């Protein structure tokens, strides 16, 4: 008697989607990638290897069938456009994992999926760049953070792109019933580690900090991380953007402190000078940026909680200008 392999659909064939699809293949699952346009080959390149991912790529939702897991890896602003895939892919036992930026994953995706669908928010610590259609350079990072039960070891995990240690990467029972535990088990056996944290709200804000400084600054200057690492005026602006975001996060209930500023800057300094950000890559490729889910989130929640954010508001206005058609 053979055991049916777990069926996984990855929506989005960009940098994160391709890297996660490769991990799901490595974990031994039946994987299909759902994309907007045909792709001849899916290739993941790392410093020490180049490999082709042999999975079907669908472009027509009518060709999709029900799966066990839907991994939503589009840019946050493209989620509504991806909703056409949800009907064919999602059944009563399907879990949707939202692998996107922002601090409102479930609230953003919940209205788009069938009523009763399990939605699991996830924070992706994978730095990757699309070099062309289906060709992704995985620069660093091998971690996904999801909500965990109270008492989870990492109550509010620090933001980090460091490789997970073997001490942390314990195996998870494949028969677990909690969606976070089941997702960790799904990728067990791959190089991608799923970390569960009890205080997911704080973890989400810490992830937002990694984006709220570097993404708009590199996108607006059209420079890579070296501009934050080595240009004093730009570094001070970045620090000030983080300071405003922390004030908003605290008002929203996240357990943030001034130490999170220094830790975020340390993360920036850990990148190679020629590394970029997702918003810089989008600008270089002529794509729309996801500023509304990053800087826009800080401005909207700042207004909601009465926290002034003049610098983030100015950056958001500039990003609107950059994206103006």
From TrEMBL:
GO terms for biological process: pantothenate biosynthetic process. Residues 8-147 form the Ketopantoate reductase N-terminal domain. The keyword NADP applies. GO terms for cellular component: cytoplasm. SUPFAM superfamilies: 6-phosphogluconate dehydrogenase C-terminal domain-like (SSF48179), NAD(P)-binding Rossmann-fold domains (SSF51735). Residues 199-322 form the Ketopantoate reductase C-terminal domain. Pfam families: ApbA (PF02558), ApbA_C (PF08546). Its EC number is 1.1.1.169. Belongs to the ketopantoate reductase family. This is 2-dehydropantoate 2-reductase. It comes from Actinoplanes xinjiangensis.
